[in-house]
Amino acid sequence: MQSQDVASHRAPSATDPVVDVEQAEAALVEHYPRLVRLAYLVLPPDLGRGRRVLTAHALVQRALPRNRTAAPLIPTQSAGRGSDPGYALVRLRIVRTALDASRPLGRRAWPRRAQLPPLLPQVWGLKLFPRSGGAGELALDQRLAGLSGPARAAYALRGLDRLPDPDVRRLLKAAGVTDAGAALREADEVGGPYALLGSPEFDPCSLQARPTDLMRRRRHTRAALVAGASLVVCGALLGLPGDGWGPDGAAAPAYARNPAAEAALDPGRLVRVGPAAWKTSARTDFSVWPARGDLTGDEELLRRALAVWARPGGTVRVSATPGTPTGAPAGPPQLLYAGDVDNARVVVLNDGLRLVRYAEPRDGAAGAALDLARADGAGRAGANAVVLGRTDGNVRYLTAPWVTKAAERDLAKPGSGTTDLDLTDGVTSPLASPVERAGACTSWNVLQLTDGSRTRLMSDLGELVPARLTTGRPGGAEDVSGAGALRVWAPYACSLGAVRGQGVRSVNAWEFAAQPLPDGSGSGAWVCTRAETWRGAGARVMAQFRTPGGERGVVTARAQDVPACGERDPHVLAGVLWKSKGGHWYLLAAGSRDTRSVEATGGISGFADGNLLTAVGERGAQAELKGTLENGRTISGLR
Hints:
Elements: E1 18-19, H1 21-30, H2 32-42, H3 49-61, E2 69-70, H4 85-102, E3 126-130, H5 135-145, H6 149-161, H7 165-174, H8 180-188, E4 207-211, H9 214-238, H10 259-264, H11 277-280, H12 299-310, E5 317-320, E6 334-341, E7 344-350, E8 354-361, E9 369-374, E10 385-391, E11 394-399, E12 405-410, E13 418-421, E14 423-424, E15 427-428, E16 431-432, E17 445-451, E18 454-459, E19 467-471, E20 478-479, H13 483-489, E21 504-516, E22 523-533, E23 540-546, E24 554-560, E25 573-579, E26 585-591, E27 595-602, E28 606-609, E29 612-616, E30 623-629, E31 634-636
C-alpha cells in the first residue's frame, strides 16, 4: 500500500513505492502539456526557441522508464497530479535531464544525451516556436534567462505545480542539484506573478510555424537526389545474376497461386448475413449482424477495403488495439457495414477474431485509415455497438440488430436524464465523445442502449468497440441500470480516461466498503474499478476512496495483471493516509466484506477485527497492509 503524502525526493530505496511503466505512461500522457512546459522553462534559453521546443518534447517523451521503477517520493493524499506516483516519477526524470541539458559541454568527458540536439521529434522544413506573449511575459523570460538551471527549475516547480519550498528543495536534490537552497534564493529574486507561466509564451504545445532557409533546402534536395540515384544504380548491379541480391527463392509474388488468400480479397465472396438471422441463431454476437449501409453493393469500395487490410500502403493510417494482429484475413470475412458516414466512406468487416474498420474520404482514397480491434468471444452484452466514425469531437455508432433504442447519458451526473439518439438502419446520430474532449474532466458521456427490457451503458475509450460498464461484486456484476448503479459510477466516471486505448472489453465498479471517518467527519466510500481486456491479459485495477462531499474519488492504488477485484479473486484490500478536518492524520484501510481482520505494519502499526482499520498516523508515513479472509487466507494491500 502506498501512503498518500509527499516525502523527500531522495535516491530510490527498497522501501520506495514501485511505479509500473504503464502507470508512468498514463501520467505522462495525461499531463503531457504541463510536463513539456516544465521542461521548456528549465532548458537554457541560449538554445533558441525552436530547439528548446523540440528538446522539451524529446526530454518528456524519453522520461518514460523502461521497466518497473522505484520512485523516491510519496504523493499527497489530495486529488490531482500530486496523488499519482507515476507523475512524480516522470517529473523528477524530466527535471534531471533538463538540468543536464543546461550544463556546458566538457572537453574531457563524453556529452550526455540531453546535451545533444534531439534525434526525435523532428519537423523538416519548418521552424516551430511558441506564440509571442505581452510585455510581462517578455520581461519574465528575460529574467529567467539570467538564472541558473536549478533556479529556473525551482521557479517553474513553484509556479506550475505549486510545490512548497521544502518539496522543491528535496526534488532538486534528487535531480542532482548540490545546493538547492541557493537555487531557491536565486529564484526569489525573480518575483512576479506565477500566473504568467501559464501563458502561450511558455507553451511548447501551442506553436507557430515558419519555413526554414528555402535556398539551402533546395541545394540539399538536389544533393540528396544525386545520392539516391547512385544508390539505385548500385542496387540494380547487385541484383544481377551472381553473388549479389537475387530473387526471393521459393516465395511466390503476393497472393499468386494461393486460393485462400485470393478468396479473402474477393469482394464477391464476402459473407453476408440475413437481417433476421440473429433471431434464430444459437449465437448472438457480431457473427449474426446483417450487412447494412447504402454501399454494400459497391464492389470497388469493398475491393479497396480488402486490399488495404491485406497490404496497407505507406499513406494509410493503421491502428490496432493491444494484442490485435494486423495481418490479412485467413478467408473471406463477414461484411457488417458499407456506407457513407459524414465525410467518409466506411466499411466494417469481421473475421471472427477481429473487427476491422476501413475509411476513406469521399473525394478520393488518399488519406485512408484502417482500424483493427479484437472482438472474439463477444456475447450479446458485448456485441452491442461498433464505432463508425469520429468527426468534430463526436462519434457515430453502428448498433446490433437487437438494439431497439439508443440514448446519450452523462455518467458523471446520474440525475441529468438521457437524450434520445436517432437510429437509422442501426446507425446512431452523433453524440459527444468523452475521449475527444480537451481540458479538465467535468462530464463523461456514454451510450445507453436498450435491448428489449434490458438497458446497457457503453463507454467510448477511443477504440473501435466501446466498453461495457457494470456494477456489483465480481462474479455477480450487472449492467448499469437504475438510480443506485448510476450513483455508484458517478464519482468515478472520469477515471475511465486512465484505461483508454488499452483494448478494454468491460469495466466494473464495485463499492466494497463504507468506512466511518475519525473526528466525526462522516463516512467514506471505497470502490474498486477493474477494466478487463478482449485479449484477457492486461486487466487494470484501481482502488478509489471518496469522502463525504467529494465529487470525485481519489485513486489510492493501481495494479495490472492481478486477479484482485475480479471474478477469479473477488477480494481487495486498500488503504490511504487521510487528514481530518481537525488536522490529524490517520491510516484508513478497508477490505471486502469477507475480510476477517486487517493489520498494518511499518511506519504505522495497527490491527482491527473485521474489514475496516483506522489507525493514528503522521504525514509521510508508509505502511504495509495484510488482510485475513474468513477462510484463513491472507491478502496484501493492492499496489
